[in-house]
Amino acid sequence: MPEIKDSYKTIKHPGEPTLFKDKGSKFIGQAHPVLNEAEVEAVIQNLGSDHAKASHICYAWQLGVNYDSYRANDDGEPGNSAGLPIYGQLQAFDLTNVLVTVVRYYGGTNLGVGGLIQAYKTSAQQAIEASQIVTKTIKQKLYLNFDYPLMHTVMRIIKEEQLKPETQEMGLDCNFTLLIRKKDFKRIKKRFETVYGLTVKI
Q1: Residue 109 and residue 33 in one domain
Q2: Which end of the chain is least crowded, N or C, by CB within 10 Å?
């Protein structure tokens, strides 16, 4: 069976802007943590205001804990000379929920498509390297409902599996919410399901 992927790489905070120069052109790169396309649009709009005189604002993003969707934008540069090289760096660093932007101020000398590809790639790489990359674990929730006599059994499994209850409610009965790593989820769920009288829900 293929191993279940239950972690992903992203960045913690917006990285410091970086500067790359080539033949008078300035390329200002920055990596931004984003969770959806609305956040992407907000960052691009802010950059448009901050860099009103820029020649181009090119970018690429990847979203989703399963690396579900991406987009690359050349913003008027020759086709695939800006957005795709930037996206290539997102892939190289294996990042998701990240937007990388490169703002270009034209310096009067054409770089040619090859030069542009190299410049945008380098700027994107520098932007990512200026960010703090973190690995996050994908977790799933499991809900337990049981009566007090089962408390010892439930707590023993929780301790053995090194789990931390996200919520615990003690009333007439007990209700726990557990966060479990995706790759361990089925196995641990099965352990709880074998306990007679314990109600287990996803």
Answers
A1: yes
A2: N
Residue 42, both tokens: 């907000």
What span, in angstroms and rounded, lies between the C-alpha atoms of 61 and 70? Answer: 5
- pLDDT digit string, tens, across residues 84-130: 999 999 999 999 999 999 999 999 999 999 999 999 999 999 999 99
Has residue 2 been placed in a domain? no
Same structural domain, 125 and 195? no
d(CA 71, CA 135): 22
Q: Dump the DSSP string for 116-165.
A: HHHHHHHHHHHHHHTS-EEEEE-EEEEEEEE-GGGHHHHHHHHHHTT--E
For 42-99, the DSSP string reads HHHHHHHHHTTT-SEEEEEEEESTT--EEEEE-TTSSTTSSHHHHHHHHHHTTB-SEE
- Could you say which DSSP state residue 196 is in? T
Task: Quote the pTM value.
Answer: 0.82
Domain boundary among 87, 106, 135: 135
Which residues does 100 contact at the CB level (< 8 Å), separation at least 6?
29, 30, 31, 32, 59, 60, 61, 86, 89, 90, 124, 127, 128
**Tokens 């099965």 correspond to what residue?**
190
Q: Which residue segment(s) compose the domain that 158 sits in? A: 138-201
Which CATH number does the domain housing residue 190 bear?
3.30.70.240
The CA distance from 21 to 137, in Å, is: 37
Q: Are residues 58 and 154 in the same domain?
A: no
